[in-house]
Write a structure and sequence with these properties.
17 helices, Rossmann fold, alpha/beta, 2 domains, 6-stranded mixed sheet
Length: 379
């Protein structure tokens, strides 16, 4: 993918364009990094190209390998003389730039959109608001919307859980004919077998394995996806859950805590990998070495929730996914980015993963998560 600052009209748009350019080209750049870059732009650092380069590098890079990629991307995108970055971009004044940044943060799901808020509140209410929230990308939700969505999602997931339990109960009644019980029950009718008795199948105890990406690029999605995992525990008593970024941590023991805040409090003392970089392949290797033997039985379903922005080696990711696939009934990858219009899985991580997974699905809003019901009913 090639791009440059000339494709945009404002400084904030150019900064966000560069953040997207860096992300697509394998740097671990997410919402937080884009926001920090916009803040740097408003602080006057864009007056000198080299200072601006080092400032952005400190935000976008986490390793020496990243810095080499960054330098090339910076030159390709900005392509400016050493004197000044701002000399090539129209800057009216600092207050206008702040307004541009605020609007950009709103589009990213941060900040407060004051313009048009009252008009939207009048046009969207009740059932329409609920329907809209079901389809709204998690990254675009305001704090107020998040609270409302949590209540809405909890109700929807409870309904889904009830349907799943009903399906499981019905499936458990469809066993083989119990000949002895059928004869005993029909003796009074002279031996004519009017009512067949079935042997009840034992309830399935297959395990659901969930691996959740909590790296920086997943910040806007991780908390909602963790809520979804907590909702699933009401149906699946045998959930085995993990979070990963540069390291992998098993969080199954925290799933008995009723509320999200309690879970996060428990994790805060054990999980130090939240909002860091991403090495999916290495984390899956850790899972296969330490946990797969007791977790994967060949009948379970494995869910991986990640944007696929891997900074590790693609071959490692593909190899570890192959091992998981051999020992699981279905391997499903849920990617929030797949819900974005025009998204194509072109990063090295997703290109390596796609041949090894059974289903590639979005996970950017409530509606996309509810689509999992058909798969979960067969676990």
């Amino acid at each position: 993918m090639s791009a440059n600052y000339k494709s945009y009209d404002t400084i904030s748009q150019s900064i966000l364009g560069f953040a997207e350019y860096a992300r697509v080209n394998e740097l671990n750049v997410g919402i937080r990094e884009a926001q920090e870059a916009l803040t740097l732009a408003s602080s006057g650092l864009m007056g000198d190209k080299e200072i601006f380069r080092y400032a952005l590098k400190s935000v976008f890079c986490s390793s020496e390998e990243n810095t080499k990629i960054f330098d090339q991307l910076f030159e390709d995108y900005w392509g400016l003389p050493k004197v000044s970055v701002t000399s090539r971009i129209t800057m009216k004044n600092q207050s206008n730039l702040q307004k541009q940044i605020q609007r950009s943060l709103v589009l990213l799901g941060n900040g407060e959109n004051k313009e048009g808020k009252e008009e939207e509140a009048k046009n969207v209410s009740g059932a329409n608001a609920a329907e809209q929230l079901r389809k709204t990308d998690f990254s675009r939700l305001s704090e107020m919307d998040s609270e409302y969505l949590e209540k809405l999602a909890t109700g929807l997931w409870k309904q889904m859980s009830k349907r799943l339990k009903k399906r499981l109960k019905n499936s458990n009644t469809k066993g083989r004919i119990d000949i002895r019980q059928t004869i005993r029950n029909n003796i009074s009718s002279g031996g004519a077998m009017l009512e067949l008795k079935l042997k009840h199948k034992k309830p399935s105890k297959n395990r659901l394995i969930i691996l959740l990406d909590v790296s920086g690029s997943m910040d806007k999605y991780s908390f909602f996806l963790l809520r979804f995992i907590l909702a699933l525990r009401t149906h699946f008593k045998r959930i085995d859950a993990y979070i990963f970024s540069t390291t992998l941590i098993r969080i199954t023991e925290f799933l008995h805590i009723k509320d999200l805040e309690g879970v996060l409090h428990g994790l805060s003392h054990h999980a130090d990998n939240w909002s860091s970089g991403t090495k999916i392949g290495e984390c899956l290797k850790h899972f296969n070495q330490q946990f797969a033997k007791r977790s994967l039985s060949g009948k379970n379903m494995t869910l991986i929730l990640s944007d696929g922005l891997d900074t590790g080696e693609p071959d490692v990711l593909a190899n570890e996914l192959q091992k998981i696939k051999r020992r699981t009934r279905k391997l499903i990858w849920l990617n929030p980015l797949k819900g974005m219009k025009g998204y194509q899985p072109r990063t090295r991580g997703m290109l390596a993963a796609l041949p090894e997974i059974d289903h590639f699905m979005p996970a950017h809003n409530v509606e996309s998560l509810l689509q999992l019901e058909n798969f979960l009913s067969h676990v």
